[in-house]
Amino acid sequence: MSLLQADDITVRDGTTTLLAPVSLRLDPGEPLVVLGETGSGKSLLAQALMGTLPLGLEAKGQVTIGAQVLNSGAPDQFRGLWGREISVLPQEPWLSLDPLMRAQAQIAEGHCLVRGLPPREARIRAASDLSELGLADAAARYPHELSGGMAQRVAIAAARAGGARIVIADEPTKGLDAARRDEVANLLLNEMGQSGGLLIITHDLALAERIGGQLIVLRAGEVVERGATRAVFAAPGQSYTRDLLAANPENWTGKAAAAPAGTAVISSRNLSLARGRRTLFRDVSLDIAAGQVFGVTGPSGCGKSSLGDTLLGVIPPLQGQVQRQPGLHPFAFQKLYQDPVAAFPPRRTIGETLMDVVKMTRSDPRDVDRLLDGLGLQPDLLARRPGAVSGGELQRLSLLRVLLRRPAFIFADEPTSRLDPITQARVIKLLTNATESDGIALMLVSHDQALIRNTADAVLPLTPPCDPARAAAKKRVAIALQ
Amino acid sequence: MSAIVSRLVQALMVAILIGTATFVMMRSLPGDAAWRIAAGRYGYDNVDAAAADAVRAELGLDGPAHMALLQWLGDLVRLDFGNSLVTGQPVVDEIAHQLGASASLALVAVLLSLVIGPPLGILAGLRPGGRLDRALLVTSTGIKAVPQFLVALVLIVILAVQLRWLPAAGHGAARHFILPSLTLALGLAAVNARIARDAMARIADMPFWRFAQWKGLSERQTLLRHGLRNVSVPLITYLGLQFVTLVEGVIIVESVFGWPGIGHALVHAIFSRDVPMVQGTALVLGLGFVLVNAAIDLAIRHLDPRTAA
């Protein structure tokens, strides 16, 4: 008996088909992963199963949950199942908790109002949920007093308090580093246990591999491939799946041995940095030479971005020095930002923005065409505004803008963390090629250790800041999982 | 703790500023203050030069300004507000008497506005762009655009003169409260309905609102458990600012309805150049503003633990 069965789910926006008929079934104890890039329709599929499609989108198909048969074209029917049969783990757990309510109360209300336990018993259950997740001391805390990982666990407990056996998690690891990603994967598998259902929607290949179970690969609203996750990862049957797996930084071919480094374009000696009263790191000494790729890796909050900003002279160091190669203009030191959409003025066309840079630097307008060609971009993109360009294209355009300044050093701050794997592989390739051929020193910052390992000539791993609360909590989860 | 200290400093600044400003303003008003004060005491028909001179001598109105100011502020420090120039009674007693009438009117008005405004605003905010939302926008803008004395007159004409349901003016019985407090409440509700509406629309768009529904809570449970508390934070914060509107409103509304409160007293004190009374009332209103905001700070800290950090 399957927990959930969906037959021929389609999603349409007027006459445009966004999701071609997809059928799937969810069995107890066997997770199902829906893998796809941005725009593949994977989130629409989850929303159609939940009855939460945005207004204007129309779904068709039949969803069977337990003994109930529902029409996904009538989203109102689903409302009564929320929390009782299906629960959703939100993308951003921190923002999904009521900021003015203590953690335990947010869980207890599910036990009380949805499951129907008396208030006293609901509180006891909520407290035991928390201590099972290693969060016994977080019961009385407000969300702003929880770390991201703790918030995620509270959200999972709150989502399941109503008694739902099926958990749908939409991009549960968005923006998390490798350690946290594995933590979340283990937590979800543990919560599913032998009798629960788990449906994971993601673009994260490492998460998919970690979760295992069954896999559906979606592209542009169509199923490309399906099968057991392990089998598909071992031997992908379709060329698209092969591309997707090859784009996983884990599977990139490592960088050839680096040529001996020349003179340093930028270097630091015994650099220490603090944010507020907290020391981020101490005694960092580094040299980055022309044409060299210098990787910096480490978990969120360890000071990777701050290190780059200090090298650029944006943040003053606590101690130590930064030396830039003499004779270079300050503009020769450039930064490539994480979120390309935020790095472009929204109401001007990209062409106008780029021409501003050309005018300011008094460079040759033909450089733009040359660079467009080199970065594989269509010239007609210049007439569009940033909102009307895909993330991958926009990040290449912002690389183009940086290259227009003829930089000697580029600090690329998580330049691909918001892109899907295939686009990420392409952008990183273009970035490293461009810096290598033009002799630019590149500092590449990423939380993805595999990406850095297979791209950089030298790697600086930054260790996480000491956070006793989180470290202790992590240990307890590890015990619970055993 | 530091919040309380800063409010105390603020209260001190308010006292010095109001003391100095009222003093300067009253000194620089055109006309002979002694004549006006004498007229206030004895009636316009009974004033002559001799009476005015007697007042001048009694109050030292001829003396140098800076000496008078220092003495003025010195008295303030000793909490001595002096006697009313008109009635000769201590200012403190007069104000204590009038403040009660004003405070009860203001309190009823605020409560009434909270009954009218936020519920409508919350309902409108749950369906942004809906019929109620659009109607509320037009109505609240309309009410806010009309001066308060006009709102008062319209209410008098309709409810008191035409329908004869309520007394047009007066003080004493409960029904006398209805028209003046309604006038004040409409002005307040026009704004706090918008605040509640915007807060509700913003909150209903937040991930935690959706998540509460996904957890299985009904629309009503979500509103009661996650909506009201979150809406109340900006609403209460804004209530502190609305105190200014309320003071303005009290002055006008009390004059229109003949309500024997502090606003009414302030207007009369200004007409008759009763400087100690002007200062006393302005000071009570100014310090009231600081006090109300201090109370609101404490309430917000209690409601929203993030602000305490």
Write a brief caption for the model.
The complex is a heterodimer of chains A (482) and B (309). Chain A has 482 residues and is of the alpha/beta class.
SSE order of chain B, as H and E?
A: HHHHHHHHHHHH
For the record, the count of structural domains of chain A works out to: 2
Helix and strand composition category of chain A:
alpha/beta
Task: Describe the largest sheet of chain B.
Answer: none
For the biggest sheet of chain A, the summary is: 6 strands, mixed
CATH homologous superfamily label of the largest domain in chain B: MetI-like
Query: How many structural units, i.e. domains of chain B?
Result: 2
Biggest interface goes to: A-B, 30 and 22 residues
CATH architecture of the largest domain in chain B: Orthogonal Bundle
- Based on the structure given, which CATH architecture of the largest domain in chain A is correct? 3-Layer(aba) Sandwich
Unreliable stretches of chain B (pLDDT < 50, length at least 5) are none
Question: Fraction of residues of chain B in helices?
Answer: over 70%
Gyration radius of chain B, in Å:
24 Å
Describe this structure in words.
The complex is a heterodimer of chains A (482) and B (309). Chain A has 482 residues and is an alpha/beta fold. Helices cover 34% and strands 25% of the residues of chain A. Chain A folds into two domains: 4-251, P-loop containing nucleotide triphosphate hydrolases (Rossmann fold, 3-Layer(aba) Sandwich); 264-461, P-loop containing nucleotide triphosphate hydrolases (Rossmann fold). In chain A, helix 4 (148-160) packs parallel to helix 5 (178-192). Chain A is globular, with a radius of gyration of 25 Å. The two termini of chain A are 28 Å apart. By secondary structure, chain B is mainly alpha-helical. Chain B has two domains: 2-84, no CATH class; 92-308, Orthogonal Bundle (MetI-like fold). Chain B is 77% helix and 0% strand. Chain B contains twelve helices and no strands. Chain B has helices at residues 2-28, 33-42, 49-59, 65-77, 91-126, 131-145, 148-162, 178-203, 207-214, 219-257, 262-271, 275-303. In chain B, helix 1 packs antiparallel against helix 12, helix 6 crosses helix 8 and helix 7 (148-162) crosses helix 10. The longest helix of chain B has 39 residues, at 219-257. The interface between A and B is medium-sized, with 30 and 22 residues.
